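Thread amino acids onto this structure.
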């Protein structure tokens, strides 16, 4: 039977003893007065005992067998419903009032059940919850805690010689005065409650004092829903009056909090270890950069953001009095004032100078203002829109959201990467206090006046909307007179709707642009939009110009009444205002009809949000449960709790997502000439290889001497080394352009921003561009070689480790080689030897710093990084941008399809690429399109008729007589006219469709004959006949005597044949390919001169998919043709291709609405789904079919079923996973719980004890603490 003889014996399956839970599991409750109410389980047990006694009594009394059997069945029923009261086909046991009893199974399963409700997540002690409000004067890592909460929550502090005086004072204050203490716990475990203890309690070393939480204590702060890691962060307490938690404004973004009544939770750690972990891992400044999209999640927001834009404008000047007040708010101000920008008639400072005081020294960065024109020259910015920060000084540019917001490569990101979390925190705090103080004096306000456009603009807007209404009326006339030409693949109605939509949207946008243009520079709404603090240009145009078209399900408002939207309109009115176009602005106010349509559009949005929240919440839970035990182990591999390898190197490069930045590989887009000019060095040319004045004469002389030495030793000379370098760069470039980035991208997230370190080194070492460099090319080449050896991600000398190491660092090494190439370092960057050595050293150390830490729970991070953007996604599927009739599932429904590995997806589709000569030839591409699109007889038929036409040779349909006579003039040899049926099926074909599909009458006739062989006779007209007709008759069996009977049924039978004939006969194309669309797309290719160029190419997109058959077609490029159904890709091309398809589809869904998720999270999910050699769905059918422990599986879904099965076969769970340990209340093997510290105990004997504090002797434990540094 396959059961374990030791742990799962078959005889145990029969119950002889019923387990009874203790009273704590089924407590009785005191009802009103004296009566007690018993628990459901007690009721059930009572029934079981009673029935059991009845069975025994009946057996003793000799009751008839059928009655005993009834009692036995009742006992069986009671025991069954005691365990499980939801058995299908079995009436549930219920109370007298009809409420079903809660069985043992119901207590275990589901969200509120024992496992998920009480073991995986519990109600906790030492927590607080209240409303949050904002306070910009708090630091970003602080939280203002009400005094009442600070008096309630406690922290157990151990009494040591260092804190005994402080704790004694707290004990004296008692529980009512803050800061005080609530309990004293003696070393024998006895608790002294200070509420009742009036005498003073003298403390002793080793006792514990449960003291009130106080300023500077670390706590965990959390807002639900906790969608990602940054929803729970560490804060320091600041005790404040009143009853709300106070929070810095910038920290609201990661929590997704606002101050309209949100509540948040606070948790107080109860041990030194927890406090240490919160301080070192969870504190807010350490979470500024998120691993989700390797950019900051916090930035300057709201009034500070609006203020800093005004503050850094060219016309912002400050008097000495103002500056004196402002510098008081600069954190760490050293007492020096910058030189004023204007000295006469009175000294004035600029806002930029003040902002420079809070930017840390050594920061270099270039960003752009939101209004920066794309075509601006690089050397001058007339609108002050290029922001340059050099060595911590804001040189020029207006600071806005792009600089101090959450953008990657912005100021906050650079400070964080270069100076770390503490300095970044100081910048946040300084920026807010400084700008808010200035804004308080300068003032900023907004009113209705800011939304009013001038009379001229109002007139122009009205004209634009009237013109659009006229053009729509014109379209309506054309459509009604049938003069409108249908777009390809669309019906008349669809064409009409798309044209109307385009006209109305254009009108709205034009009116909006007109309104925006009319607003002056000092308009307050415009200022908020430009700075990025609130609102967008769409909001402006809706307030000022026109609200625009209201949509329901992506279409104009449909007719809800009979042929009209509302009774206010006439029937069949398709005009803009009848179908939901709101031509008024919010300022002018909406008419009743417009208001109604507007409410319809708004209602849809609300419903959408509510439905989406539940959907994405479930998706995120499934992702987390599937990936929860995936972590980076000590050897750098990514494994699950069973030890299965998911990835040999996290994210395929072993880097932590927080420490990578997008960097450009310059060689990708260069032309051959440019590449040679920038990288090739020829020491034989007249300038000795470099620009004149680039290299010091002594270095050039040194090269010659070194070459002479090398020649003696038989080593390569300088020129050979430079040629080697150039060859390496050429092969790098070839690999990058043809294999790594064939689409021509040149950026990828990589550690250590090399360009910035070069800029920093120039600042630090005062590199002068006019002076020649003292760098020896040999030194550069040798340093780069040594650096490459330093960049170790995978250790080991075996072949697999070396290959893994090579792959992991490949791209970064290419970046180092191309950026620090000899010619660039000397000519472009002018680095001195000192500066170059610093850059190389910095790259090495920062690279090591950027590697992912062992113990990192990368699975959970990946699940959150994918689940969080899913909550921002749209739920609906709207039309595809290119070909209107090709629908594509997007947003949440598509994400569900991908991770559920759905077999029948909603919109299967193929991208069919054509062979090289076919892709440029429209005619050939059209032929392939026709060959692929499945065409059955129904598609080319315009009408079918059934006639009674008893004489086959002389038909009673006159127009057919010609070709019938022609056929019978030369009939088939074996035709027996007596056997043909008098009933005739006449099919008329559509000439346009026949020509379109390149079909002839003979093709169709032969196909029918092939299918029905000798049972059907077909005659067809000529291809050039006026009407294309096919005539079919049934041929009856040999010797059919029963003429009468057959005749009755034949017309009915012919009707059945007609429908099967039209549907089942495939004339052309491939099954399941319903439609094929020709699309012209740009393809990137490399020209002869090495530059990238685009070329228009035809490719096909299909509705429906059949990958195997399409790949077999000639003229189809099978290497690039691709299906959006991952299951199909798996069955045709195997697991590696399926992983690639999963990745492509996931990325398509997430990036469709502009989100970006780092590659490593998506790749990890794909690897988890495919690492077992088949596609594992992220549902109970995938997660719960893995070989993980029963406890982990039952914490997801199917709780009781899994436990029953595990018990039946005596399954063993080694509790290596996360869920099992949480369930059992143990430290889970993750993060710091994965490792132990090794202490060299022999070293302890050598510890020299330090001087003791004055009061009392130190415990021996302090000696251990000092020796703790000497770890093995």
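Threaded sequence (1272 positions):
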């Amino acid at each position: 039977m396959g059961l374990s003889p030791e742990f799962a014996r078959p005889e145990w399956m029969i119950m002889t003893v019923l387990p009874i839970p203790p009273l704590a599991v089924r407590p009785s409750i005191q009802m009103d007065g004296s009566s007690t109410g018993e628990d459901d389980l007690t009721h059930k047990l009572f029934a079981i005992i009673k029935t059991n006694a009845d069975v025994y009594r009946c057996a003793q009394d000799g009751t008839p067998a059928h009655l005993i059997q009834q009692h036995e069945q009742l006992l069986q029923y009671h025991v069954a419903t005691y365990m499980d009261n939801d058995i299908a086909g079995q009436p549930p046991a219920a109370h007298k009032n009809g409420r079903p009893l809660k069985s043992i199974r119901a207590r275990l399963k589901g969200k509120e059940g024992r496992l998920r409700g009480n073991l995986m997540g519990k109600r906790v002690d030492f927590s607080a919850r209240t409303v949050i409000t904002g306070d910009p004067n708090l630091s970003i890592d602080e939280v203002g805690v009400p005094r009442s909460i600070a008096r309630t929550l406690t922290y157990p502090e151990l009494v040591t010689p260092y804190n005994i005086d402080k704790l004694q004072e707290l004990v004296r204050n008692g529980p009512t005065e803050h800061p005080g203490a609530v309990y004293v716990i003696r070393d024998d475990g006895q608790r002294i409650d200070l509420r009742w203890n009036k005498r003073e309690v003298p403390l002793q070393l080793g006792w514990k004092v449960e003291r009130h939480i106080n300023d500077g204590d670390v706590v965990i702060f959390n807002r639900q829903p906790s969608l990602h890691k940054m929803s729970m962060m560490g804060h320091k307490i600041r005790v404040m009056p009143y009853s709300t938690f106070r929070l810095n404004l910038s920290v609201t973004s990661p929590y997704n909090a606002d101050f309209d009544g949100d509540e948040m939770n606070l948790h107080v750690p109860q041990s030194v270890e927890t406090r240490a972990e919160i301080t070192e891992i969870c504190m807010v400044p350490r979470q500024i950069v998120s691993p989700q999209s390797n950019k900051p999640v916090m930035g300057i927001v709201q009034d500070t953001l609006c203020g800093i834009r005004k503050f850094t404008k060219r016309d912002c000047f400050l008097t000495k009095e103002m500056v004196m007040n402002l510098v008081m708010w600069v954190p760490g101000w050293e007492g020096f004032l910058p030189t004023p920008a204007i000295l006469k008639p009175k000294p004035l400072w600029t806002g930029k100078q003040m902002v420079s005081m809070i930017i840390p020294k050594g920061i270099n960065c270039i960003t752009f203002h939101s209004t920066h024109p794309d075509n601006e020259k690089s050397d001058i910015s007339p609108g002050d829109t290029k922001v340059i920060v050099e060595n911590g000084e804001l040189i020029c540019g207006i600071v806005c959201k792009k600089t101090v917001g959450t953008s990657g490569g912005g100021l906050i990101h650079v400070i964080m990467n270069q100076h770390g979390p503490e300095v970044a925190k100081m910048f946040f705090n300084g920026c807010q206090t400084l700008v808010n103080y200035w804004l308080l004096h300068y003032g900023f306000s907004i009113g209705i006046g800011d939304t009013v456009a001038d009379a001229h603009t109002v007139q122009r807007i009205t004209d634009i909307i009237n013109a659009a209404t006229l053009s729509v009326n014109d379209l309506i006339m054309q459509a009604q007179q049938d003069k409108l030409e249908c777009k390809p693949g669309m019906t008349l109605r669809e064409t009409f709707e798309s044209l109307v939509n385009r006209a109305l949207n254009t009108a709205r946008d034009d009116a909006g642009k007109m309104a925006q243009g009319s607003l002056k520079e000092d308009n307050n709404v415009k200022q908020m939009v430009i700075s990025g603090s609130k609102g967008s240009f769409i909001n402006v145009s809706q307030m000022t110009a026109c609200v625009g078209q209201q949509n329901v399900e992506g279409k104009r408002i449909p007719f809800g009444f009979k042929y009209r939207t509302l009774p206010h309109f006439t029937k069949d009115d398709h005009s803009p205002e009848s179908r939901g176009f709101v031509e008024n602005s919010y300022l002018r106010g909406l008419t009743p009809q417009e208001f109604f349509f507007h409410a319809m559009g708004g209602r849809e949005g609300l419903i959408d949000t509510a439905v989406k929240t539940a959907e994405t919440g479930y998706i995120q839970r499934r992702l987390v449960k599937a990936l929860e035990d995936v972590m980076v182990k000590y050897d750098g591999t990514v494994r699950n709790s069973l030890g299965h390898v998911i990835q040999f190197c996290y994210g395929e490069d072993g880097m932590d997502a927080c420490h990578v930045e997008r960097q450009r590989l310059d060689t990708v887009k260069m032309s051959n000439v440019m590449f040679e000019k920038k990288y090739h060095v020829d020491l034989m040319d007249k300038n000795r290889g470099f620009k004149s004045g680039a290299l010091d004469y002594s270095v050039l002389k040194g090269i010659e001497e070194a070459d002479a030495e090398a020649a003696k030793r038989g080593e390569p000379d300088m020129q050979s080394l430079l040629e080697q370098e150039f060859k390496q760069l050429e092969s790098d470039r070839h690999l990058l352009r043809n294999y790594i980035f064939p689409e021509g991208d040149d950026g990828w997230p990589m550690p250590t921003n090399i360009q910035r370190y070069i800029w920093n080194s120039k600042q630090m070492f005062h590199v002068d561009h006019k002076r020649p460099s003292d760098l020896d090319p040999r030194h550069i080449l040798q340093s780069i070689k040594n650096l490459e050896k330093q960049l170790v991600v995978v250790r080991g000398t075996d072949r697999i480790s070396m290959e893994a190491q090579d792959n992991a660092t490949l791209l970064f090494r290419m970046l180092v080689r191309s950026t620090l190439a000899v010619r660039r370092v000397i000519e472009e960057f002018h680095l001195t030897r000192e500066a170059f050595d610093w850059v190389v050293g910095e790259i090495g150390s920062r690279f090591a710093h950027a590697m992912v830490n062992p113990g990192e729970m990368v699975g959970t991070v990946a699940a959150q990084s994918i689940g969080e953007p899913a909550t921002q996604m749209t739920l609906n599927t709207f039309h595809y941008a290119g070909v209107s009739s090709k629908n594509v599932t997007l947003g949440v429904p598509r994400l569900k399809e991908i991770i559920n590995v759905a077999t029948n997806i909603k919109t299967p589709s193929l991208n069919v690429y054509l062979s090289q000569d076919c892709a440029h030839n429209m005619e050939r591409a059209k032929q392939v399109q026709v060959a692929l699109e499945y065409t059955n007889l129904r598609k080319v038929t315009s009408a079918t008729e059934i006639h009674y036409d008893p004489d086959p040779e002389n038909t009673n349909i006159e127009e057919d007589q010609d070709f019938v006579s022609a056929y019978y003039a030369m009939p088939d040899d074996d035709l027996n006219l007596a056997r043909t049926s008098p009933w005739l099926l006449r099919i008329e074909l559509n000439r346009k469709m026949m020509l379109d599909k390149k079909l002839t009458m003979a093709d169709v006739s032969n196909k029918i004959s092939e299918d029905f062989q000798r049972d059907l006779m077909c005659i067809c007209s000529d291809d050039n006949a006026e009407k294309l007709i096919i005539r079919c008759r049934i041929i009856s069996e040999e010797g059919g005597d029963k003429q009468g009977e057959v005749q009755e049924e034949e017309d009915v039978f012919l009707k059945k044949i007609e429908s099967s004939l039209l549907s089942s006969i495939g004339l052309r194309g491939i099954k399941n390919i319903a439609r094929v669309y020709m699309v012209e797309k740009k393809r990137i290719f490399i020209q002869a001169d090495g530059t990238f160029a685009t070329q228009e190419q035809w490719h096909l997109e299909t509705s429906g998919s059949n990958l195997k058959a399409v790949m077999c077609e000639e003229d189809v490029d099978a290497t690039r043709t691709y299906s959006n159904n991952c299951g199909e890709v798996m069955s045709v091309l195997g697991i590696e291709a399926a992983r690639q398809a999963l990745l492509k589809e996931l990325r398509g869904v997430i990036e469709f609405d502009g989100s970006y998720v780092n590659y490593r999270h998506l790749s990890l999910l794909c690897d988890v789904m495919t690492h077992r050699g088949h596609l594992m769905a992220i549902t109970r059918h995938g997660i719960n079919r893995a070989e993980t422990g029963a406890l982990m599986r039952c914490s997801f879904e199917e709780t009781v079923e899994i436990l029953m099965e595990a018990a039946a076969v005596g399954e063993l769970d080694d509790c290596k996973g996360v869920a099992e340990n949480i369930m059992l209340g143990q430290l889970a093997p993750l993060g710091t719980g994965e490792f132990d510290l090794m202490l060299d105990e022999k070293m302890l004997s050598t510890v020299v004890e330090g001087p003791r504090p004055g009061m009392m002797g130190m415990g021996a434990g302090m000696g251990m603490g000092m020796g703790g540094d000497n770890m093995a």
